[in-house]
Amino acid sequence: MAVTEPVDDVFHDEEQLHNGGDDEVVHPHVFHTQDGFSIGDVSNITDDASSVSSRLSISSKNVSSVFKQSIALLQGQIPEETEVELRSNNSVGVSSPVAIVDGIPETVEHDSNNDPDSTSRSKQLRTISPSSRRNVSSRIDFLQDHPTDMTYARRLALHLMTRKAWYNPQLKKQNVVVVVHNNESSTTTMNHVPSQPISNTVEVDEEDEFFGKVEGFVPEIPSLKKAWAYFEHVTLPRHIVYPKDERLPPGSERKSMGRRIVRKLFHKANKKLDYAEPGECYVPSKLYSPIFTPLKQMGDFGLGIGLYFTTLRALTILTLVAGLVNIPNFIYFQSDEYSDSQPGVRSFLKGSAICTNTVWVPCPDCNPDDFKNSPNRLAQTNSSETGDPLYFALQNDCDGTKIAQGMVSYATLFTIIIGIFVLNIWTKKKEIEFDEDEQTAQDYSIVITNPPSDARDPEEWRAFFRETLDAQITCCTVAVDNDLMVRCLVERRERFRQLEMMLPQGTSLDMLNLARIAAKVDLGRNSLAYMLASIVRGIPEIFGRIVVLNAKIQGLAQQRKYPVTNVFVTFETEAAQRRALHGLSVGSIHAWRNQSHTLASPDYLFRGNIVLNVLEAEEPSTVRWTDLNEKTEDKVKQLVVTMFVTCATIALVAFIVKLCRDKSAFFAAMAISISNALFPLFAKLLTSTESHASESGKQASLYVKIAVFRWVNTAIVITIITPFTYTLGNDGDSLIPSIYAIFFAEMVTTNVIQLADPAGHLKRHILAPRAPTQDLMNLQMGGTIYELAERYTSMTKILFLALWYSAVFPATLFLCSLTLFINYFSDRFSLMRTWRPAPQLGTTISQFSRKYFFSTSIVAMAVVSSYAWSGFPYDNICMNDESVGNEYVNNTWNVQTIDGKSNHTVTVLSGDESWRFCSQDMLRNQGQSFPALPRFQPEGGEWMTNDQETVTNIYGWTSLAVLVLVVLKLIFGIFMMTLNLFRSTYKPSGKDQGVNFSDQPSISSYIPQVMSDVFSYPLLACDVQGLDEELFDWQDPDKPFSFYDLTHDAEELLASIHITREDMKDVFSRISHWPTAEEQLVEEASTKNGGFH
Questions:
Q1: What residues form DSSP beta bridges with 287?
Q2: Is the pLDDT of residue 1046 over 90?
Q3: Rounded percentage of the chain residues whose pLDDT exceeds 70
Q4: Strand order through the sheet with 6-7
Q5: 3-state DSSP of 441-469
Q6: In this predicted model, what pLDDT tens digit does every residue of 33-50 receive, in sequence order?
Q7: How is residue 1062 annotated by DSSP?
Q8: Which of 366, 462, 678, 754 would be a feasible disulfide site paired with 391, CB 3.0-4.6 Å?
Q9: What is the DSSP string of 721-771?
Q10: How many CA atoms lie within 13 A of 777 on its CB side?
Q11: Alpha helices (runs of H) in 185-340, residue ranges in sequence order
């Protein structure tokens, strides 16, 4: 028996075991030897022993040189030329191929501003067809990236992996070459340690009796170098680099740091960057710069991401401007006029409304029950004559509400209102700019949500649009209602992957062999093992689940014909898509009732009698194919349940925070911080139980849950649980220091943890080097998962907190601006260096924020500020009309607070005023309390000054007006949503760019696929045999797309019940691609010349 021959891939110095035939389909769990044996496979990659040995012999001759080069790599410098060169022959720069592109021997960063000649060439490359692009460049070897184009983490890993066994445990293994001849094997041991280890000695002439290892199996040797190449070329985002005339090696142009920053910030601010698809290996690419990537290019990551950073930057500027408007209040609060320059207040809290000018005053009518929430503000002693208790209350001698301060706050409110209004207009403009800058499949595609259940043939749809609209279709995906079937196939593949990870390499995954192993494991269990198996599934449980899934899939397949539910159509031109949307969009109600009179022409009726519900499709990566066909009533039930659980969780956490607050403000702050960090995980779990047709819908649902929780938990709960009289306090239990602590945590702690990415580094540097297979190693390099909804809620939470407390803590606006500024760059860094790629979301969350959450923030600021100005001086005592009684006067009293924690000395003189308890908290007073107007003060308990009444009147009526306007806006929005059910809502976004779909440098189509946590790439839920691989937005350099094709799983499984591949045509969705005439010519020429097609 002979092992199959390897073929080259993009990793040129490593080789991959292949199935031995170009036309043979590679099945997901087996590959075949020439003798027909099936061998369990996870990732069939091995090293070429001769090339490794050659490199080792060279390395051993010059150890000191290698060490110097490694240090140079870590420092980002170019190592000296030696025999041991880390890059291939003449390759330099950004993943550059050893090839000549259009007669240009080098590729460097494209700068259209400084090189007009290169502009024409870059334009030519952008408009060249994807098929032709393959013929102008050889496949790029990712392992030969230049060190200056690597992340520092990769440079460090490359240095350690070949030198430190504690970092790369494979260095401890002895190296072996395995030779197999029929049933005899021989081994050759290599005594030296290689730069890329091979394997331990493998005896293949005896079959393992327990695991059933296949004879002749060669264990897979995962490559850490490949895993890091996967991290930087698949996980991290990259942009295409276009050629330049003059050769300019990286690092050779050394300018001062100042000149380089100015050049990047200003001269290159408008440069065009084209997003490179994950795994792009035909044109050179480069990692995006976290700092110097222009904001206009952030749309490369999706409209949603671009709008998020646009909004983040705009709010940073807006809150800074609002803070500047609020500076007079900041100055007043730290002046002698307000509180004697606030002695004892920490510097970062000066300028807030903290009142340090306090005095104990006689309060004959005060009762301890009135101060049960603030016992430190009431003290007592006993009369020396009668022994009766005498009470003293703590007065805040600070006049906070003056007309000047009220009007400054009022101007700040209108600054925010105008700023939010301008922000709405600005983000709508940026939507168009991002959309025009980055042409994607969405710009060419429509989705039909009510097709006839039997309209399965893509050719029928192609003919309809060609005859009706004279439009050329490039791709058509006909999706069927097979969600349950796909879920079962995905779970089955995942269960097999679990067994691969649990069993030794080489174990046959034949069902009979797995049944034997499961039976032996089950027989060998004791009572404790059975208990553990009920918690964590073992081999017998996983195998049992596979058996159930097999039976379920066989039963579902016998239904044979699944109804068509959605049809995705991608036109060759943007104009054709716009014609289709203009002509066929009529509103979902008219389409549901099939009212043909709503169409402009009877020719637009499908099959002559069907009104189609046509909408603009979302991005292919956002379609959730396993939830596409869930019934509306089921979706509503799921949302009701999850929102109820969310509200119950909010109430529970508020109760816990209240209990912590009763102990200490520190414990309350810790409870708030921990719950804010943990709830997003819980919200994701809740949202995962919901069915959403697109990722946008899922993100919107997640956004609502997290935003409501964080708003309530961070701002509203603190207001409720903090005693009213603690508002202006200076100790740690008071309101304003607690607010600052929250801002500090958001500004420093959260960002430090995010930038440090401890979980990501643990996976990449600890778990990945110890992974047994290449695929598992790649999974550890997948990046940290993030949710755009969570990033939006973090932004809006900080804004909401600042606006909520801006009246009593003017510096919150500056703190908000600074926090958002830090978040802007930390999120950019994470997006381009640590986060996992996310679906390219559209404008849903941005529009949702503008319509609802920003409007709610304005209402909150207006209403809370009105109550804030009405509450001064926040001591809950009012002056009586008479002087203090004789029992108090002409004496110095030693008093103790009723909580027994402090003692004070109070001197009372004749003629001093007496005081009484009066509730100044209008929000909690009985009777009407909204809006906050002076006339709603309790009768006989009035406390407001004349200036305070004026300010409160203005703010109270303004808050009511703002609330009414926002409510009317929401009602109008609901009315328009209802009206849109009866009419077309399509409006073109931006101008037609005039570029064909097939001419886009990076294109993708609507290919049914499902992401899995145990696979590095999506699993395909349709037959992709013969489909142009340029239609995928990802590419596995080690395995063909057929490896991820679930229809092959079904074909093998259903063969036992005599269901053929032809019989399964109606079970799975279909996709068809019709290349243009130019593409067909290129395909033919590429095939004749031995190209990649």
A1: 238
A2: yes
A3: 79
A4: 6-7, 15-17, 45-46
A5: HHHHEEEECCCCCCCCCHHHHHHHHHHHH
A6: 333 323 333 333 333 333
A7: T
A8: 366
A9: HS-GGGTT--STTSHHHHHHHHHHIIIIIHHHHHHH-HHHHHIIIIIGGG-
A10: 24
A11: 224-230, 257-262, 303-325, 327-333, 336-339
Ramachandran sector of residue 683 (left: φ over 0; alpha: ψ -120 to 50; beta: rest): alpha
What is the distance between the alpha carbons of residues 326 and 812, in angstroms, rounded to a whole number?
10
What is the average pLDDT score of the chain? Answer: 80
The span from the CA of 343 to the CA of 350, in Å, is: 9
What pLDDT score does 365 carry? 87
Q: Output the six-digit token pair for 23.
A: 């036309």
- In angstroms, the CA 927 to CA 797 distance is 31
User: What b/e sequence results for 133-163 when a residue is b if at least 16 CB atoms lie within 10 Å of its CB, and e otherwise?
Assistant: bbbbbebbbbbbbbbbbbbebbbbbbbbbbe
Residues in CB range of 226: below 8 A, 6 or more apart: 11, 14, 45, 142, 143, 774, 777, 778, 1038
Convert 23-53 to b/e letters by CB count within 10 Å (16 or more is b).
eeebbbbbbbbeeeeebbbbbbbbbebeebb
> In this predicted structure, what is the pLDDT of residue 660?
85
What's the rounded Cα separation, in Å, for the pair 433 and 300?
Answer: 11
Please report, for residues 482, 486, 798, the alpha-carbon distance to residue 628 in angstroms, rounded to integers and kept in the order given.
10, 12, 35
Three-state SS at 277: coil
- Record the tokens describing residue 1, joined without a space: 């028996």
Distance CA 618, CA 566 (A): 13
SS3 state of residue 211? coil
The predicted model scores a pTM of 0.81
Single out the residue of 3, 40, 36 nearest to residue 507, CA to CA: 40
| 378-382: strand order across its sheet | 358-362, 389-396, 378-382, 891-897, 903-908
Q: What is the pLDDT of residue 572?
A: 93
Strand partners, 1070: 478
- Look at 990 and 801; give whichever has higher pLDDT: 801
Each residue's pLDDT tens digit, 405-457: 999 999 999 999 999 999 999 998 988 888 888 888 999 999 999 999 999 99
The pLDDT of residue 272 is above 90: no
Summarize pLDDT for 920-957 with one digit per residue, the tens. 998 888 778 889 999 999 888 889 999 999 999 999 99
- Cα separation, 997 vs 268, whole angstroms: 28
Report the chain's terminal Cα–Cα distance, integer Å: 31
**Residue from 844, 881, 836, 894 nearest 1034 by CA:** 836
Q: What are the residue ranges of helices labelled H in 524-626?
A: 527-535, 539-557, 574-584, 588-592
Please check whether residue 712 is in contact with residue 650, taking contact to mean a CB–CB distance below 8 angstroms.
yes
Q: Are 232 and 148 in contact (CB under 8 A)?
A: no
Kindly give the residue spans of alpha helices, DSSP state H, lying in 81-165: 116-127, 130-133, 152-161
Q: Give yes or no for a contact between 8 and 137, defined as CB atoms under 8 angstroms apart.
A: no
How many angstroms separate the CA atoms of 392 and 377, rounded?
8
Model confidence at 742, pLDDT cuts 50, 70, 90, reads confident
Q: Which two tokens stand for residue 1055?
A: 């063969």
Mean of pLDDT values over 294-306: 90
Is it the case that residue 115 has pLDDT exceeding 50? no
Q: At what angle do helices 539-557 and 483-502 cross, to 10 degrees?
A: 150
Q: Are 933 and 926 in contact (CB under 8 A)?
A: no
pLDDT at 941: 85
Give helix 788-804 / helix 735-744 axis angle, nearest 10°: 150
Q: Where are the beta strands (DSSP E) in 216-272?
A: 238-240
Of 391-395, 761-765, 869-873, 1064-1068, which gets the smallest average pLDDT?
1064-1068
Mean per-residue pLDDT, 128-132: 45
pLDDT at res. 754: 92
